Amino acid sequence: MFEANAFELPDMAKKIGIDLRNRYILGYAPTNQERDGKFHSVEVRVIPPRGLPKLKPHWRTGYYAPLD
User: What pLDDT sits at residue 28?
Assistant: First the structure.
């Protein structure tokens, strides 16, 4: 939720649109299909293209495999 007066709405909507267009979601399917319940680490490396500002990636460091 954002608070704004009527004059700020167009600028705020534009900024929200830019932010949403610049988000990506990546999926991951492990090659190890073992159902061992153990923690499995995930490493993510981000190499930004030349000329882009610093990127701010966010990810989980791993996952627990299911037991069943």
Answer: 83
Q: Please name the residues in contact with 46: beta carbons below 8 A apart, sequence gap of 6 or more.
A: 55, 57
Distance (Å) of CA 35 to CA 10, 49, 54, 62? 50, 37, 37, 15
| φ, ψ of residue 40 in degrees (nearest 5) | -120, 125
48-55: long-range contacts, CB 8 A cutoff, minimum separation 24: none
Query: What would the two tokens of residue 50 be?
Result: 């030349």
pTM over 0.85, yes/no: no
Helices and strands per DSSP (H, E), number in the chain: 1, 2
